[in-house]
Design brief:
The complex is a heterodimer of chains A (160) and B (543). Chain A is of the alpha/beta class. In chain A, 25% of the residues lie in helices and 15% in strands. Chain A has helices at 36-41, 80-90, 108-114, 127-135, 151-157, and strands spanning 21-22, 34-35, 47-50, 68-73, 96-101, 118-121. In chain A, β4 (68-73), α2 and β5 form a beta-alpha-beta unit. Chain B folds into four domains: 6-110, Sulfite Reductase Hemoprotein, domain 2 (Alpha-Beta Complex), CATH 3.90.480; 134-292, Sulfite Reductase Hemoprotein, domain 1, CATH 3.30.413.10; 310-392, Alpha-Beta Plaits (2-Layer Sandwich), CATH 3.30.70.3340; 407-542, Sulfite Reductase Hemoprotein, domain 1, CATH 3.30.413.10. By secondary structure, chain B is of the alpha+beta class. In chain B, β4 (82-85) and β5 (91-96) form a beta hairpin. Chain B is globular. Chain B has helices at residues 6-28, 33-41, 65-78, 98-110, 143-153, 226-240, 251-258, 260-277, 283-290, 310-319, 347-360, 383-392, 423-436, 438-442, 501-518, 525-532, 534-542, and strands spanning 45-47, 52-56, 62-64, 82-85, 91-96, 127-128, 168-171, 185-191, 197-203, 216-222, 320-322, 328-333, 344-346, 364-367, 373-379, 407-408, 447-450, 464-471, 474-481, 493-494. The chains are: A alpha/beta (160), B alpha+beta (543). Chains A and B meet through α2, α3 and α5 of A and α1, α6 and α9 of B.
C-alpha cells in the first residue's frame, strides 16, 4: 500500500487535517469517505467521494444522511466536478462539499460559486494568494449555487 | 451598439489586473510555463511558432471607430504594424512580447474590449450575422441575444473547464451568413406561430477533423428562457462529453454518439430542472440590451449610383449588400487584395477603416467570418466618396464572394499546429485568377484553405476546399468540392489523391473549367456541382 492510500482512516479520501480552507462553522466531518457505489449500499454512510465519472444524481435520494461529499479533481482540467457540485446544492444538500485533488488557486472563486465550501488541494496553496483570488471579483454575471445577486439583477433590482 | 456600464467595465479591469499579476509572476520565474499556460490561455495568449500570439475578442464582430482605431494603434505599438482578422470575427496579433501583454489588455479595456475566453476549453466569443441590424431579410437584430449570452458565458463558474472549446453563433434571418449550423450551438431567432420571438437551437455542429452539421434540437425556446436552455445544453455536455480523447471531445461527438434524440431528451430534463432552480436573468435585462441596438437615424435619399466609372460600378455590384432602408447599403471592404494575405490589415488601414466607419456608417464597423470588414449603414449617395477613399488606401478590391475572396488560416507561416502553408497558396491562386480574368466569369465561388486538419480555414464548408497535410515531410494538398456554410449547408467531399502546391493550383483551375463547361443559366459553381455530381470533376482531375 502506498502512503497516499494509507491515511489514518485507512480508506480513500482526505482527512479533516488535509483541508486547507473551510468556509463552514460546524465541526469538520471526520468520517472516511466511501465510493458512490459503496455509499449507496450502506444505509448509514455519512461521507461519500465523487469521482469525475460518477453521477451526482445517484445520491439525491440520500442527501439527508450525508454530511460530507468530497468531489475529486484528478486533473484541474476536468471540469465535471463543477456540475456535480451545483447539482447537489440545487437539490438542497447543505453538508460539507469538499474539493480535493488538483485544485488550483485560480479555480477557488469559481468553485465557491458552484457550492464548494471546503478545499483539500494536493499541493497546499499560498494563503495570501488564495485570499486574493477569492476576493478579486466584486460581481458575477450568472446565477449559481452561491445565489449571489447577479450583475443583471443589480441593474434592475438593486442591492435589496 | 452595446456600451459597457460600470459593472462590465469593472469586470474587465479586474481581469487585466489579475493577468498583470500572473504575467509578472511568470516573468519573475515564480510561475513555470506549465503553470502559466492555462492562465494565459484564459486571456487569449498563445505561444506560437515564432512568438506569442494574442487573440482579441470582437463580440459578434461589431466595432465602433474608437475600438478600430485602438486595434490599429496596438498593431503599430506592440506588433509589426499589422493584425489578422479571423474566421471568428476576432483579431489576432502574431508578434507579441509577453512583457507587453498586460499593457495591451489594459489598452483594450480603455475601449471596452478584452481577450477573455478567446482560447481555452470554455465558451468562446459569440459570433453573429455581419449584416445584423442592417440586412433587409432579418426578422430582428440578433445581437441583443448574442450580448445576453456573452454576459452569461463570461467567467461562467461551471463551464470554464469543458471537455473542449465551445462556439456559439446567433442569427435572425433565413439567410445564414454566420455558418450557424457549423457551431457547437447555433441559434436562430425567429417568430413562433403566435408571432412571439423565440430561439431555435441547433446543437453539435462543427468543422475540425470530424465535420458535422448541427441537428435542430428545439424549434422554439421562448426568449425569457434562452439562457436557461443554453445552460441545460452546456451542463449535459460538461457532464457527459468525452474527455478521454481530445479529438472526440467536442459536443458534436456527444450528440452524434448519443443521437440527437437522446441528447435532446437529456437537455429537456435538465432544462425543466433549471427552470425550477431559476437561473434566467431578469427579462428587463434583455430589454435594456435591446435599447443599445436601435436603428440609427436613417434618412431618405438617392437609391441609385452614377455607374459611369466602370471600376466603381463593379465594386458596387460586387461589394455591397441590400439594406433594410432603401437609401442605404452595407458595404463590404475586402481584406483580400490580389496577392495579399487574407484578413490582414495594417495599423494605418485600421485607422482609415475607423475614420470611414465614423464618416459613412454611424460609427460602426463589422468583422465578417470571411475575414473582411463591413460598414453596415452607408448612404447610397455616399458610396462614390467611400469607394474613392477605399481605393486610395488599397482597400477597394472588388472581389467579394469570388474565388479571390479566399478564407485561409495562418498555416505553417505562423501556427504551431499547421502541417502546410495556407497563405502563399491563397496569394498564388488570387494572382492567377486575377491575371487570367477568370474571376469575373466564375461569379460566386467560395474557396477555403486550411493548413491542417483542425480546419480553421473552413475547408469543409468551401465550394472548393483545400486541406494542407504533411506527407512524409512534404506539404501535400487535398482538394474537396461541394461544401457550403450558408442556409444550404453541406460538407465538401474529397476529390481523390492530393496534390503538390503547384498541382493543387492547376487542379483548382481545372475544376473551374469543368464548371464553366457544364453550368446552365445562372448556376453558381456549387449549384452545378450539386447537379452534375463529383464524377465529371474527378475525370478532369485524374484521367
Amino acid at each position: 500500500m502506498t502512503e497516499a492510500f494509507d491515511n489514518e482512516a485507512g480508506s480513500l479520501g482526505s482527512g479533516p487535517d488535509q483541508v486547507q480552507f473551510r468556509f463552514r462553522d460546524d465541526e469538520p466531518v471526520g468520517d472516511a469517505t466511501l465510493t458512490v457505489d459503496a455509499a449507496l449500499e450502506q444505509p448509514d454512510a455519512a461521507a461519500v467521494r465523487i469521482e469525475p465519472g460518477d453521477d451526482a444524481r445517484d445520491l439525491l435520494e440520500h442527501l439527508g444522511r450525508l454530511s460530507l461529499v468530497e468531489i475529486n479533481f484528478p486533473s484541474f482540467a476536468d471540469g465535471r466536478g463543477y456540475s456535480a457540485a451545483r447539482i447537489l446544492r440545487e437539490a438542497g444538500y447543505t453538508g460539507e462539499l469538499r474539493a480535493v485533488g488538483d485544485v488550483l488557486v485560480d479555480q477557488l472563486a469559481h468553485m465557491r460559486r458552484c457550492g464548494f465550501d471546503a478545499f483539500a488541494p494536493d499541493a497546499p496553496m499560498d494563503e495570501a494568494a488564495a485570499k486574493r483570488a477569492l476576493g478579486l471579483y466584486d460581481n458575477v454575471y450568472q446565477n449559481a449555487a452561491d445565489r449571489r445577486r447577479t450583475i443583471a439583477e443589480l441593474r434592475h433590482w438593486g442591492q435589496t | 451598439m452595446y456600451r459597457y456600464d460600470d459593472y462590465d467595465q469593472h469586470m474587465v479591469d479586474t481581469r487585466v489586473e489579475e493577468f498583470r499579476d500572473q504575467a509578472r509572476r511568470r516573468i519573475e520565474g515564480s510561475l513555470t510555463e506549465d503553470q502559466f499556460k492555462p492562465l494565459r490561455l484564459m486571456n487569449g495568449l498563445y505561444l506560437q511558432l515564432h512568438a506569442y500570439m494574442l487573440r482579441v475578442a470582437i463580440p459578434y464582430g461589431t466595432l465602433n471607430s474608437r475600438q478600430m482605431t485602438a486595434l490599429g494603434d496596438i498593431a503599430d505599438r506592440y506588433d509589426r504594424g499589422y493584425g489578422h482578422f479571423t474566421t471568428r470575427q476576432n483579431i489576432q496579433y502574431n508578434w507579441i512580447k509577453l512583457e507587453d501583454a498586460a499593457d495591451i489588455l489594459s489598452d483594450l479595456s480603455q475601449v471596452e474590449m478584452h481577450a477573455i475566453q478567446t482560447s481555452g476549453n470554455c465558451i468562446r466569443n459569440i459570433s453573429s450575422d455581419h449584416f445584423a441590424g442592417a440586412a433587409h431579410d432579418e426578422i430582428v437584430d440578433p445581437r441583443p441575444y448574442a450580448e445576453l449570452l456573452r454576459q452569461w458565458s463570461s467567467f461562467h463558474p461551471e463551464f470554464t473547464y469543458l471537455p473542449r472549446k465551445f462556439k456559439i453563433a446567433v442569427i435572425a434571418s433565413e439567410k445564414d451568413r454566420a455558418a450557424m449550423r457549423l457551431h457547437d450551438i447555433g441559434i436562430r431567432i425567429l417568430r413562433g406561430e403566435n408571432g412571439d420571438l423565440g430561439a431555435r437551437f441547433y446543437v453539435g455542429g462543427g468543422m475540425g477533423r470530424t465535420p458535422m452539421i448541427a441537428p435542430m434540437i428545439r424549434d422554439f425556446v421562448p426568449l425569457d428562457q434562452l439562457v436557461t436552455y443554453a445552460e441545460a445544453c452546456l451542463r449535459v455536455y460538461n457532464r457527459h462529453g468525452r474527455r478521454d480523447n481530445k479529438y472526440k471531445a467536442r459536443i458534436k461527438i456527444l450528440v452524434h454518439e448519443l443521437g440527437a434524440e437522446e441528447y435532446t431528451r437529456q437537455v429537456e430534463e435538465e432544462f425543466a430542472h433549471l427552470l425550477e432552480v431559476g437561473v434566467e436573468p431578469p427579462f428587463a435585462e434583455l430589454e435594456r440590451i435591446r435599447g443599445f441596438f436601435t436603428d440609427p437615424p436613417f434618412e431618405d435619399g438617392p437609391r441609385t449610383v452614377d455607374r459611369s466609372d466602370p471600376d466603381f460600378a463593379l465594386w458596387v455590384d460586387r461589394n455591397t449588400h441590400r439594406h433594410k432602408h432603401d437609401s442605404y447599403v452595407s458595404a463590404v471592404i475586402s481584406l483580400k487584395p490580389v496577392g495579399g494575405i487574407p484578413g490582414d490589415a495594417t495599423g494605418e488601414q485600421m485607422r482609415i477603416l475607423a475614420k470611414l466607419a465614423k464618416r459613412f456608417s454611424f460609427d460602426e464597423a463589422r468583422v465578417t467570418h470571411t475575414q473582411n470588414v463591413v460598414l453596415p449603414h452607408v448612404r447610397i449617395a455616399d458610396l462614390h466618396d467611400l469607394w474613392t477613399e477605399l481605393d486610395a488606401a488599397d482597400l477597394a478590391a472588388p472581389n467579394l464572394d469570388t474565388i479571390e475572396d479566399i478564407i485561409a488560416c495562418p498555416g505553417l507561416d505562423y501556427c504551431s499546429l499547421a502541417n502546410a502553408r495556407s497563405i502563399p497558396l491563397a496569394q498564388r491562386i488570387s494572382r492567377r485568377f486575377d491575371a487570367s480574368g477568370k474571376t469575373r466569369r466564375l461569379g460566386e465561388l467560395k474557396l477555403k484553405i486550411s493548413g491542417c486538419i483542425n480546419a480553421c480555414g473552413h475547408h469543409h464548408a468551401g465550394h472548393i476546399g483545400i486541406l494542407g497535410v504533411d506527407r512524409k515531410g512534404v506539404e501535400n494538398y487535398q482538394l474537396s468540392l461541394g461544401g457550403s456554410e450558408a442556409e444550404d449547408v453541406s460538407l465538401a467531399k474529397i476529390t481523390g489523391p492530393g496534390f503538390t502546391e503547384d498541382g493543387v493550383i492547376e487542379a483548382v483551375d481545372k475544376v473551374t473549367d469543368v464548371y464553366l463547361e457544364h453550368r446552365t443559366g445562372e448556376e453558381r459553381f456549387i449549384d452545378t456541382y450539386r447537379r452534375v455530381g463529383m464524377g465529371v470533376f474527378k475525370e478532369a482531375l485524374y484521367d
